[in-house]
Amino acid sequence: MSAPDREYLLEGASINALPKVSLHDHLDGGLRPQTIVELADEAGLELPVRDAETLRTWFESRAHAGSLVEYLKTFDVTVGVMQTADALARVAREFVEDLHADGVVYGEIRWAPEQHLTHGLSLDQAVEAVQAGIDQAVAAVGAGGGFIRIGQLLSSLRQNPGQAGEIARLAVRHRDSGVVGFDTAGPEAGFPASTMRGAFDYLAAEWFPVTVHAGEADGLDSITSALLDGRALRLGHGVRLAEDLIIERADDENTYVSLGLLSQWVKDREIALETSPTSNLQTGAIAHWGETMADHPFDLLYQLGFRVTVNTDNRLMSGTSLSRELSLLADVFAYRLDDLETFQLNAAAAAFLPIEEREELIDRIAAGFDAV
């Protein structure tokens, strides 16, 4: 059984069965290997390996690259099979089915429409195809007595800043038909949010929510630009915010930390950090602190009161699931169910939903954990 399909237990409870919120999950990073094989056959695309399980291993082996740029290279394969309306709808449908199977009750799926036009789709047709797949899965879950709600986040590629305005307008056009927010994706270093300032100005004028990848492959300047130029309400990963923390001294029982102005701002305004622990190790995002999960600054940020959330980033490449990520953190930092509930409540509070719907989501999560 692959790691994403396993059941993970904590205090005798199934983490898989607990209600969870997924805020940072890339559509092209969550395909089923068998689906890739079948779609590649239909499209006549060459794959590095033909067997689905061997292909899964191939993706996972290349995820340990130590840099975001290298980590992103495997997406040429997944994006390559997602170039038609039928393929996009199928991938989106299965993506939601897999989230539901892992206990997710609310998820935001991010993807870059501009990468899916080589077979003649327009940007709007691509968005509509993904929404069709989402709607099919949500309806099927509901018909089976389950519950899940999904929103799209449209990503603009940082290396193509000239496209950002068009993707921003695309997102706003579809705000009443499934798109809940705007994102940036792609290589972070060298492409600050300021290069897309016009798009962010437009989104702000439209009162449209924004999250920005920042503090993953670049440091505090990138986070600053995300907040000032991008008006980001959340930080994609954001783990390098911990570079703005100064550990003044430690004794046997306590660590004393002071916050810089940037980290104090993020904490005080409860700007959510969309951390993805396994991915953060694989891309070298936490290299400043070490190379193991125990070195991840997640726990330090949590103990200091930052709004930390737990996410998968790319389930296929990282061989993971949200339940697995939570289990890994619980094992390393001795978290209990109450801590896992806090992470879900943090994510629910940061979701790009109206306040009334966020409160309903919070109630659903609390009820699920209370029932354990």
Automatic annotation (TrEMBL):
One of its GO terms (molecular function) is metal ion binding. GO terms for cellular component: cytosol. Its cofactor is Zn(2+). Coiled coil: none annotated. Pfam families: A_deaminase. InterPro entries: A_deaminase_dom (IPR001365), Ado/ade_deaminase (IPR006330), Metal_Hydrolase (IPR032466). One of its GO terms (biological process) is adenosine catabolic process. The keyword Glycosyltransferase does not apply. Residues 19-366 form the Adenosine deaminase domain. Keywords: Hydrolase, Metal-binding, Zinc. Its EC number is 3.5.4.4. PANTHER family: ADENOSINE DEAMINASE. Belongs to the metallo-dependent hydrolases superfamily. Adenosine and AMP deaminases family. This is adenosine deaminase. It comes from Gryllotalpicola protaetiae.
